[in-house]
Amino acid sequence: MIKLSESFDFNEIFILVGIVVCTSILIYSIWTFYNLFIKSMFSKKYGIGKLPRSIKIKRLKDGEKQRNYFVLKYPYWENSKKDGTADRRIKNNVIIWRKSKLYIDMFMLISLDPSDIVFVVRELRSNGVDIALCKEERLKYNKNAGCCAGIWCLNKKRHFLQIVVYKI
C-alpha cells in the first residue's frame, strides 16, 4: 500500500501503474469482443456477409423496438463555396463526417460513411427485410416514377461515389 510520506518506493508506483494498465487492457478487450459478438449475431440473424469495418452496432433496449428505416447524413466541407465544393483559399479545410444510422428491429447501425449504410440496406433488402425508403429514395422514386436513381456522396478518400438506388 502506498503511504503518503516524503519518499515513495518506485516498486509501489510501478505496481500501481501496472494494475491500471492491465485493467484498461482488460476492459478494452471485453468491449472489443462484445462488439464483435454483436456484429456476428446481427450478420447471422439477417443472413448477410461480413459488415464493413466502419459500421458500429448498438443493441437497443428490449422496449425500444424500432420500425426498420435509415437516415443518411452526408459529409460536407467545413468551409465550402456556394456550390458545396472545397474552398481552396483556406489552408486547413477539412471534411465534416456525420453519422448515418440504420434502425433494424433491436439494432442501430451507425457509420460515418453513408455508402456503407446503403450497402447494408441493399443486402438486407435482397434478403427480404422490409426497410422503409429514406428521404433521398422517396424523392428520386417520386421524381422518376419508378426508374432507378442515383445519389452522389463523398467517401473517406475524398472521391465522389454514385450510390445507385433501385426500385424495390
Helix content: 25-40%
Gyration radius, in Å: 23 Å
Instruction: Catalogue the unreliable spans.
Output: none
- What is the count of distinct domains? 1
**Strand line-up in the sheet with most strands:** 1-6-5-2
End-to-end CA span: 67 Å
- What is the N-to-C succession of helices and strands? HEEEEEEHHEE
According to DSSP, the number of beta strands is: 8
| β-sheet strand percentage | 15-25%
Biggest β-sheet strands, sense, barrel: 4 strands, antiparallel
Q: What is the general shape?
A: flat
Characterize the structure shown.
The protein is of the alpha+beta class. The protein has one domain (10-165). The chain has three helices and eight strands. The chain has a four-stranded antiparallel sheet. Strands 3-4 form a two-stranded antiparallel sheet. Strands 7-8 form a two-stranded antiparallel ribbon. Strand 7 and strand 8 (160-165) form a beta hairpin. The protein is flat.
Concise account of the structure shown:
The chain has 168 residues and is an alpha+beta fold.
Summarize the helices and strands and which ones pair or pack.
Elements: H1 10-46, E1 56-59, E2 69-71, E3 76-77, E4 95-96, E5 100-104, E6 107-111, H2 114-126, H3 135-144, E7 149-154, E8 160-165
Antiparallel strand pairs: 1-6, 2-5, 3-4, 5-6, 7-8
